[in-house]
Amino acid sequence: MATAPSATSQASHDCPPLKPHYSFGQRCRSLYHELWFRLSEGIRWSRRPYHEIPAGRLTELSPWQTTRIDGLRTRYGLAFESLYSRHTALANYNYLDVLDQAWMRMDRPIPRHGIVTDVGCANFWYARTLHAFFRPATLKGVDVEGFRLYPTGYSRYDAVAGYIADLPQTSFVVANYCELEDQADVITAWFPFVTPAPVLAWRLPLTVFSPEQLCARIARNLAPDGTFFMVNQGVEEAATAAAYCRRAGLRSVGQWIHPQPLRARPHPPVASCWAKS
Length: 277
Ligand SMILES: C[S@@+](CC[C@H](N)C(=O)[O-])C[C@H]1O[C@@H](n2cnc3c(N)ncnc32)[C@H](O)[C@@H]1O
What we know:
Helices cover 37% and strands 18% of the residues. It is an alpha/beta fold and 277 residues long.
């Protein structure tokens, strides 16, 4: 997940610099990550779809968490713990809760049955959540890094294959979204990089950090009546992301700060909806 912005990245939230300045240390770390990134994308290691060992039941939850999760289970007919580990199951309930509450609080109709693209989906562990919420005609996850190798010996590609195996009309594309021609009715982005520090924390090179181009491409790929749904970590990061969105020609149609997410974070998730200007 994205972490707090670094001192160098906090320069201005209203007008982020077009060319950020990187310290010597940041550039060294970036070069190191670049090496591994290029290696894994060159080798494209893949064994077979990876399936988690299901937790079965979720225990040790506080009463308010149990109540909220029970509500989501009933409303969406899902039980993530029957498919995923405790960590992934809770994380999915958390994202579903954000979606569920954000659209209600922003008082917006949920755009169901459309073409949905998630930008920067990592291993797409939350594909089932997006599927349950948007009931899409098609669902596509896009990530610039597809073949990161995990300590289990499986790659990100294998993990994605497991997560989307039984989801209809769902796919994963390894690509730099900034270069993708791909119109969609709904585009989602959960914790996109809008400052450089989280890029390095995710062990990626700074060459993939291009929030300006990313937002421009989102604006370009969004269908005329489409919605861009974004979640950022904390109000500062959300303000930085909003500046990029506005610069790309998107207009804000709603924002909501989650007061009590199912999984505690140092900064509250800030959800926002955007439309073409
Ligand atoms: C902070 S992570 C968030 C991952 C995921 N959305 C989640 O909530 O767990 C950002 C992700 O965006 C991906 N990413 C960054 N730049 C990208 C680009 N230009 N095109 C596609 N994916 C990108 C990264 O590889 C990383 O997986």
